[in-house]
Design a protein that fits this description.
The structure is a homodimer. By secondary structure, the first copy, chain A, is α/β, with parallel strands linked by helices. The first copy, chain A, has nine helices and ten strands. In chain A, the strands form two sheets. A six-stranded parallel β-sheet of chain A has the order 1-4-3-2-6-7, sandwiched between helices. In chain A, strands 8-9-10 form a three-stranded antiparallel β-sheet, with helices on one face. Chains A, B: Homodimer.
Chain lengths: ~280, ~280
Amino acid sequence: MRTITLKQEMYLWAKQVKTAGHSIGFVPTMGFLHEGHLALVEEAKRDNDYVIMSIFVNPLQFGQGEDYTTYPRDEKRDKKLAEEAGVDILFMPSVDDMYKHKKSIKLMVTEKTDKLCGATRPGHFDGVVTVLTKLFHLTTPNRAYFGLKDVQQFAIVTALVEEFDFPVEIVPVDTVREPSGLAISSRNVKLTREDKQKAPALFNSLLLGKKLIIEGETDANVIIKTVRHYLDQQLGENVEVDYVEILTFPYLEDLSEVNGKVVIAVAVRFFTARLIDNIIVD
Amino acid sequence: MRTITLKQEMYLWAKQVKTAGHSIGFVPTMGFLHEGHLALVEEAKRDNDYVIMSIFVNPLQFGQGEDYTTYPRDEKRDKKLAEEAGVDILFMPSVDDMYKHKKSIKLMVTEKTDKLCGATRPGHFDGVVTVLTKLFHLTTPNRAYFGLKDVQQFAIVTALVEEFDFPVEIVPVDTVREPSGLAISSRNVKLTREDKQKAPALFNSLLLGKKLIIEGETDANVIIKTVRHYLDQQLGENVEVDYVEILTFPYLEDLSEVNGKVVIAVAVRFFTARLIDNIIVD
């Protein structure tokens, strides 16, 4: 595995590989790798000649009061995991190199941001699409891999690629779960032992929602109420349910009657960490 | 020459050519071709294995009350001229195909737009960078060619490519002029015979400004006043000088003292057409 830190070097490597007729799979990350990231690499290796993983904690997608400076970082461990997973190029640019030009043009997400996590993170997805536009241009992938755990990010990246005709295929990868059903996340380590035992309730609540739909329930409000009631019961008083939402997938439009492909998504605020999860039902 | 109208077909052609190791030069236009466009093709042919020209009158860059519907079009003549100039692929997408997705992400130019022509065309350059982003993705050029006559467009496209790391080199091409010095423009045919005789005054006023700088004048206001006075004298009462500006090149920043590379730019409103011109002085 080769580590590249300069944009210029990354671009030249990618250009050489593409000109030679090879395909590139791209896995963008903010580092602190876990099994979810490694599942993306595994998919990317299956479909492409070369795999680039980027590790870049993007300041542009953190709001005021968010945890940009304390975001977990472990470069040494990340390098080891990436190499073991079979990554060919680990791209770790500096903030100075990535944002060396004065900004005179802005990318803004004007739809799909007033729901799920976007509602409480103004500007977050502007930062996400800006850094991904740059990374796509620098790595020129045939395919880029995104976990479905952040379903809103997947929906917005899909829109970015469609609306601006990026020559890249966005490949969704299923959420990786612990045997308990708990979705793998960097934040799971922050949970207290007691909360960790409660946390599988998120996925179980989603399975309950799915079951209702499969049994014929079409009223979104009924499903939301049932899922929320289940969460409240399972999690107890000290845990706050941020949201339970049902939206169309992948466009994330509001709906009152369930019809076609939908996503049920939940966010729960434990004392030491906020967790999200979702399930797609067709 | 092959004409392509579908985005998907354009993208697949470009992919095939790039994968085979060939280079692509790209000349984006709104059609109604003249010698200025053909000079871009000539440069593109010199540097690249294949040349793509696009003809697309982009509704997004026309404001309310601007001439989108009456913008001059002559597909038959354009095809003939493009073929004679040696264009390999003429890409003529439809508006429906280009903008088939609902817009949920916006590109906005937030700097460099309050001067020159941008001051009176709000949103114009948002439309320009949006369509160019799409066209760059669809044609994946190694180099793209822009005339310096629209110096503000060149500056903003340069910023687009730098700030978002597009893997494309922007090549500036000098303005093509008639023997009188008049810059070639689709709008010249709209001039009355009398105005056509007066119009070379634009370039002569720029040469006067350049002469002042070379002779040591550094006060931008003095140069602007002298150029404007010359234009007023030469053009007479029925012609309105829209602006005379001196800015840094290529960043188009305001300056009071001339230093380094600058551009002197003028816009003049004749009764039947508005003309622009500029000169770069180092």
